[in-house]
Structures
1.
Amino acid sequence: MKWKLTDILGSPYPIILGPMRFITLGKMAALVSKYGGFGQIAASGLTTKRLREEIRVARTLTDMPFGVNFPVYRPKTEELIQVAVEEGVKTITTSAGNPKKFIDRIKGAGLKVLHKVANIDMAKKAEDAGVDAIIATGIEAGGHVGRDGATTFCLIPQLARALSIPVVAAGGGCNFALACDIRIASERARFGEVFVKRGVFPDWGGVYFLPRLVGYAKAAELFFSGEVIDATEALRIGMVNKVVPHEKLAEETRKFALNIANNAPLPIAFIKRGLQNFGRMDLAQALDFEKMAVDTCWNSRDRKEGFKSFLEKRPPHFIGC
Ligand SMILES: Cc1cc2nc3c(=O)[nH]c(=O)nc-3n(C[C@H](O)[C@H](O)[C@H](O)COP(=O)(O)O)c2cc1C
């Protein structure tokens, strides 16, 4: 599958290893890239000599592209970027500041750059400066970028509306998936609400979503214990809808999505609104909404097409009105 982002990264999947100072070095970056993600070496705190060595370590472990992250407020950023250029790195990320003063250097060397931000102002400045994509990370970003402002969950839609370049959501993991309508997991997937093991509160709405999927008691068990469960257990407790062979994850997910996309958009939109809101309504309100949705769908062009296609024994062609 191709996205604007995979073009920028040069990797098969639009999944980026979050850079972590002194943790994500050559070996870890290479492993992520080797399996199709975009690994990153955190340059923060490294000397130019050490960064060069780490890039070379990664290079010996994978032919796939990987990047380097530069927090721009730190000393020697220019020299460190120069090392990445000399070592043939094609895409880098910047964070913690305005990347404008390094853009000519980066772009002049033909590199792509994604910049990590915590709010719209920073994102706009970075877009104006000429970065290729934005990585959005809210207040929960491991102590980085910004501690005032929105959580990533709130920031993403704001940025997606405000910018014309791709926006990458940082963090999230398990709880990001819980916020989706449907989850399809590879048989190799593992899920864990491990926050209590490090003394932090679960982010991305996890405490809201998980009990709605698996019930209060199971959610409490997973949150309080920090236990990591496999895909089979996640399926058993209703955390995921389906588990598929690892190699078929993209194919099966696409098939599943295309099947939904072939159905009538209008009733699906109303059903989604009902699913999200009926829990907050009383029965009379829910039935009022239902009547409005039934009438609107009945009078739609797609309902007529649905009936006509049934009589003509052909697949319907829905247009969403
Ligand atoms: C220990 C640690 C070190 C980090 N170092 C960096 C860094 O050097 N540069 C950077 O841009 N972000 C850094 N981050 C932020 C992460 O890359 C990531 O954006 C953030 O942790 C959000 O993802 P998460 O919710 O999965 O933790 C660091 C985070 C942690 C926890």
Note: Residues 18-21, 23, 42, 44, 69, 71, 95, 116, 137, 140-142, 144, 170-171, 173 surround flavin mononucleotide (CB under 6 Å).
2.
Amino acid sequence: MNPLRTMVTVRPLSAVRQYPLIIQSPAPAAPRLGRGRRVIVVVAHADDVTLFCGGTVARWADLGVAVTVVRVTDDSLDSAGVDEATTRRCNAEQFRAACEVLGVEEVVDLGWLTDRLSDESTVAIRERIIYHVRRVRPFAMASFDPDSRLHEDNLDHKVVAAAVDEAYWTSMFDKHHPEHLDEGLRPHGVYERWYFGRQVADVTEVVDISTTIDRKVEAALCHDLMLRNIVHQLRLQAETGGYGVAALDAAQDGDLRPLFDTALRRSAEATGARHGLAMAEEFRVVPSRRTRGPPRRVTVSRFLGGSPRRLRQASA
Ligand SMILES: [Zn+2]
């Protein structure tokens, strides 16, 4: 007999307790985004905030949440038939106008050349995001989902996603950019990350935007230059495909509202239909407190009643 065998107790596998894979926090209710909180939304381009999460940003503003939007690029190339200097200026103005419609409290323009972020240092972009996280000290940060790349064809979006994801934890390190501390800033820990994208891989939060879809549409229509460039691209593709679309032809130099009002509402309806809501936007929130079951609906209507805010422009 092996003497070692006598020293251990061997239990059959069936007797081993099957622990759940997910360990639920013993903490009572996790803190949630609400009145008095701050959110920093980091986007690559002027129209990203409205198109990806405009309905939710407007709900946050209604809720009393102070929203800062950081635009990483200058959008100087996003137009059709307009020179770069005019494009840069108009897109900046239209970005501010859209943010005002959504109830954003503050905008920051970092000014990197658009559609070139993949040639820039991600660490340098991350430094600017860390700086503003430490300055704003938000409860949550929102940006592109770094794990939704399968559905993302815009390199600027991918670079911003990676930079934001790293800024989330490096903002807490006192040895990352101590020059910020010399300015009086302190390391800051963001509590939640809200990820959006063309198709969020793992939806954990669904926001009902029925009450804010009108503002999302109005904010989108502020982006006259960028929307006309979208129409221009769609018409080029239709031309190559050998067909025409009357609605696109009418929108190119005419009223953009019929086309984009319909498109945005249908998109919100399609998202809402997946969750039994009239209109919605989807997010992957980390850390997620959802462990099982369908995505939780975030109903915030009982908190409505925030006062209007005046938009501020912070230095980059
Ligand atoms: Zn974009």
Note: The pocket of zinc ion is lined by residues 44-45, 48, 154, 157 (CB under 6 Å).
